[in-house]
Amino acid sequence: MTSIPHDTPGEPDPLRALGLERLRRRTSMKWRTYPEDVLPLWVAEMDVPLAEPVVRAVTDALALGDTGYPAGTAYTEALAAFAAARWNWHGITPERTAVVPDVMLGVVEMLRLVTGPGDPVIVNPPVYPPFFQFVTHMDRRVVEAPLGPGLRLDPGVLEDTFRETTVRGGRAAYLLCSPHNPTGTVHTLDELTTVAALAERYGVRVVADEIHAPLVTPGVPFVPYLSVPGAERAFSLMSASKGWNLAGLKAALALAGPEAAADLARLPEEVSHGPSHLGVIAHTAALRDATGWLDALLAGLRANRTLLAGLLADRLPGIRPYSAEATFLAWLDCRALGLGDDPARAFLDRGRVALSSGLPFGTGGAGHARLNLATSPEVLTEAVRRMAAALA
Questions:
Q1: DSSP assignment, residue 326?
Q2: Is the dihedral of CA 380, 385, 388, 389 positive or negative?
């Protein structure tokens, strides 16, 4: 997949736009879970103002009283144009697309189409904790195929797991995180081609969570899973949620490969009642009209990742941050600090910095923590200062 040059930002870095006083007026999970003396760098919310085209689209809808039920294909068309411009991928069509409430609920619905109660769903830990929570809640069985060296997909482990879960002829699905959360790994074309070949060999249906796809570092090629040869029977879930900070405006798209279209057509009609009309409007505006804002954000995230690496090397050399090519998350190996399996607890209790504990991410999470980079350089600097002070 060819990497398409990003736009020249032409906009200020949104990560530098808001101070702590204004951020603490927010009432979302990030800012209401912990007391005010805690710096929250945990859940995947960004400390940014919304892109102006998104604000304009939503406020125009409110002014019109346009707050009914979603309709039409504008969201799909906006994603298709974004995918063509960013990833040189032209495989999105309205006929193989459905609007769903959000990416994880879309994942659940895709898994329901191709698995039954008790069937295995394979994941690659350490991985996004809701993969475990949602899958077990829907009465499927999570099977781990841990990441390999360098925290990349391990084809040998995947093949063994695919074989073991289908040896008696049963159904199995593979829930792929692409780009990977929490490591920020961007899977290559070769890696994904191997995944597709293994999935076809063993009859495993692939569902790809690609919510972080807009947040790939410029110059690094993102490969949509459905663009890979052999992925015709797979599904993908995409959204503007993470790229433009729209988690509270619910809407996502489920995409089917050509040979999965009949499965997608079995999606219950009531699923389409879940997305918010305002969410569809917001996500459409982001993908269509706010790419300059996204590019400014990506530049800010790249600067923050460099800043974090320098701060840790200076103040906390015992922490090893993994090199990430995507997301606004940093996966921190804290095992050398002697803080036990849950270093995030120590940083919260002693340093008043909230990180995500590595334990819920599954195998490979112990001794690790996840840090949200999507904040100002000042907050990031203060967070590392507090973390270092917690060890003094």
A1: B
A2: negative
pLDDT(61) > 90: yes
Report CA-CA distances (Å) from 1 to 87, 182, 294, 313: 7, 23, 21, 35
Shortest CA distance to 369 belongs to which of 385, 386, 387, 381?
387
202 in Cβ contact with 166 (< 8 Å): yes
| CA–CA gap between residue 12 and residue 72 (Å, rounded) | 33
Q: How many CA atoms lie within 13 A of 314 on its CB side?
A: 9
CA geometry: angle 236, 97, 209, nearest 5 deg: 15
pLDDT digits (tens, 9 = 90+) for 86-110: 999 999 999 999 999 999 999 999 9
Instruction: Specify which residues 255 forms β-bridges with.
Output: 97, 236
- Cβ atoms 103, 279 nearer than 8 A: no
9's tokens: 């930002």
User: pLDDT tens digits for 372-390?
Assistant: 999 999 999 999 999 999 9
